[in-house]
Amino acid sequence: MAPGGWGRPGWRSIGWDDAPQPCALAVSVPDPSPELLQRAAGVRRAAMALGQLGDAERRGAVLAMADALEADAALIVAANQADLEVAAAENLAPALVARLKLDAAKLAAAIEGVRQVAALPDPLGVRQLHRELDDGLVLERLSVPLGVVGVIFEARPDAVMQIASLAIRSGNGAILKGGREASRSCAAILAALQRGLAASTVAPAALELLTSREESLALLRLDGLVDLIIPRGSNALVQFIQDNTRIPVLGHADGICHLYVDQEVDIAQALRVALDSKTQYPAACNAIETLLLHRAVAPRFLEAALPAFASAGVELRGDAAACALGVPQAAAEADWGTEYSDLILAVRLVDSLEQALAHIARHGSRHTDAICTTNTAAAETFLRGVDSAGVYLNCSTRFADGFRYGFGAEVGISTQTLPPRGPVGLEGLVTYRYLLRGTGHIAADYASGERAFTHRDLPL
Amino acid sequence: MAPGGWGRPGWRSIGWDDAPQPCALAVSVPDPSPELLQRAAGVRRAAMALGQLGDAERRGAVLAMADALEADAALIVAANQADLEVAAAENLAPALVARLKLDAAKLAAAIEGVRQVAALPDPLGVRQLHRELDDGLVLERLSVPLGVVGVIFEARPDAVMQIASLAIRSGNGAILKGGREASRSCAAILAALQRGLAASTVAPAALELLTSREESLALLRLDGLVDLIIPRGSNALVQFIQDNTRIPVLGHADGICHLYVDQEVDIAQALRVALDSKTQYPAACNAIETLLLHRAVAPRFLEAALPAFASAGVELRGDAAACALGVPQAAAEADWGTEYSDLILAVRLVDSLEQALAHIARHGSRHTDAICTTNTAAAETFLRGVDSAGVYLNCSTRFADGFRYGFGAEVGISTQTLPPRGPVGLEGLVTYRYLLRGTGHIAADYASGERAFTHRDLPL
């Protein structure tokens, strides 16, 4: 799938949209070596200092990173060439080679992406709460950086630039571990990024690149030094990480998205939405895997849809009722719970909106689900009744993306129920602190009833 | 410690403030039984329906719960009596007995607490984002319930009432597991709560009580059915849970809180704050464990503090410099990392604010740390430089509490870095959904450049 499919050349979303990759997970997680602990502590120290810098300094550091990448462009492309040669010698799969490749044009686009991150509004220092607890006792809640994020990602070297710029912009240190196949590219990129930081007020130690497999596993044991792990890879990788770390994981399970076509519907519009939701980028987690059709509309819809999907190369797998209407292949029970990540779509007929809701509740992954309907009541019932990160009316599920939501950049897409949920922008890299300023206030005075809280909200 | 110590009789914070209790953790986590899966699925179904109810209905349900508790008061107190008799026969520790005890007055106060939860503003349906992505394509982010929370708590039966009311108020189902010692009390309370729900529009199945140890362990394996685990117990329990579940945990590690007394300080005020921070409820996680004294102020401070702490029954343990100034007992290295939960306080002299910050960064648990100073620059350096959930100036660390922050109720206190952090009110039980309404919009039009996003924020 061409990067252009994301609407910004060469600067793809940091989702977990790529097709799953094999990954040997049957390993035990080693304790961090003293050397790794020392490096991680160094990142943490640098991050603490970075977190106290102002907006202009962090913005300047990201721009300096972009400049350094530009200055090192030839070196980086050459390092990537070396990676590509090894990949060719090792017969790496073409899809992986395509991801690995970083030519001058792709690099230029990635550098432009870094500059866009610099231009994002400051996520830090936002006052979320401002409250007088009592006379002279004032509480504030301010957004602050998380601290240090650990990122484990695959072959794509452009991810290093994007994640590093997002981390620095939001005042965080980052420990990065890229795929082995991209090791030379990642090292060249990180050297440039650190040189850029050296020309700014941010310590280059705020970014670290792990190179060995042991280190990347031991990263999972760096609780206290790493505040969030962002895995980018297969579901198996994410689950392995969740099972082997106490550090919170910005996780992503399957994307089993549904489109329900209601009985009252603009068929041409619904078909257009269905085609886009399946085919605009089938490997994406926000592509639909199952089409639910109200029985009353199924004949008319399928009459138009069967040739349209066929000419788009989509293989349809239907339940008995759908097959009776011409869907060529039968779906097995397992199809309702499968993320194809491919041009395959399961089709099921339902008797009612309620049955569609029940199907989604049972088989969905709470990612993104859509309804096409012209009936307002049905639309609102669906929007209220589906417990997914995104619930859509009359539009493609492919809009579930941080850039498309207007976040400017995307840390990832979370299918956890807890916030941050869905496409996560820079706010996924910040937390908050409560600051309380008094003049000698003590709790005993309130426990005794001598004083009482006022709890008066002040202007933000 | 009398409940009155919390400023609201009989209605203590749902923190993890109680002294750690022994807990046999060397067990394996069993898979959920079909019966448990069925019950959990029932809670989930009830919760999905509950989550779609309006403010008035959820408020009414909580009030009905309060009414039912009132009607069953005699039964509940009798059940508690039975628990207390067994506890006496088993020689339960007095502190546990005190927690277990639920007499008529304590029950009345707890019921009043349930009514207070009903009165809290609706946490659901709050529009957090409202944005036009393009003409006719509008994105909203609305607060919604988490779904189902699993709560594992200790002997205190009043916790059932508080957690259940918070869950229902925020549209969530709850699976509760209380301590074995409180089994009769919890069963009587839950029966009343469910009877209350039966008189409302909320299905009684939204609340479930687990009774066996196997069930409470298997609760950790209910991913997909339970969205958040809230453990209330010792650090060992919390860590065991975090290590044995993929479900997010609203976790709480140690509360190792510090008070730093700067060289420029109102000594009388600082002493008052220090005494309150240590003694107002020493078993609380927000009590200080270490006092850091600037070397320049230490002699004058300790001159006043030594007799004051002695008469408050506080055992001081000092570093060599503090001992030289009269602190009677020497601190070992381990003291700097110990949560005493008792009338013990470690005292260390530092040469500078920077040294105090370094000590806190090294030994603190990012819970709550305070500075006493009259120097504005020192205050701001401390407030910016300490990465804890609460950073305080010239006031007691004991204010780190949801009620005191004005949240009206507290789900717990989180020492994780990610939000929700610090004292967590009802917002800890809600998440959000993105709703996107279009009129046939598809992603391909934006990828091709045929259409462009407007990303225009609309009024909230």
Describe it.
2 copies of one chain form a homodimer. Chain A is of the alpha/beta class. The first copy, chain A, has 2 domains: 39-243, Aldehyde Dehydrogenase, Chain A, domain 1, CATH 3.40.605; 257-399, 3-Layer(aba) Sandwich (Aldehyde Dehydrogenase, Chain A, domain 2), CATH 3.40.309.10. The first copy, chain A, is built from 15 helices and 17 strands. Chain A has helices at 34-50, 55-71, 73-89, 94-100, 104-119, 158-169, 183-198, 213-218, 235-243, 267-279, 298-311, 320-324, 353-363, 376-385, 444-447; strands at 127-134, 137-145, 148-152, 173-177, 207-210, 228-231, 257-261, 288-294, 315-318, 329-330, 344-350, 368-372, 390-395, 412-414, 422-424, 430-441, 456-457. In chain A, the strands form 4 sheets. Chain A has a 7-stranded parallel sheet, with helices on both faces. In chain A, strand 7, helix 10 (267-279) and strand 8 form a beta-alpha-beta unit. The first copy, chain A, is globular and about 75 Å long. The two termini of chain A are 45 Å apart. The interface between A and B is large, with 76 and 77 residues.
Helix and strand topology:
2 copies of one chain form a homodimer.
Chain A: H1 34-50, H2 55-71, H3 73-89, H4 94-100, H5 104-119, E1 127-134, E2 137-145, E3 148-152, H6 158-169, E4 173-177, H7 183-198, E5 207-210, H8 213-218, E6 228-231, H9 235-243, E7 257-261, H10 267-279, E8 288-294, H11 298-311, E9 315-318, H12 320-324, E10 329-330, E11 344-350, H13 353-363, E12 368-372, H14 376-385, E13 390-395, E14 412-414, E15 422-424, E16 430-441, H15 444-447, E17 456-457
Parallel strand pairs in A: 3-4, 3-6, 4-5, 7-8, 7-12, 8-11, 9-10, 9-11, 12-13
Antiparallel strand pairs in A: 1-2, 1-17, 2-16, 14-15
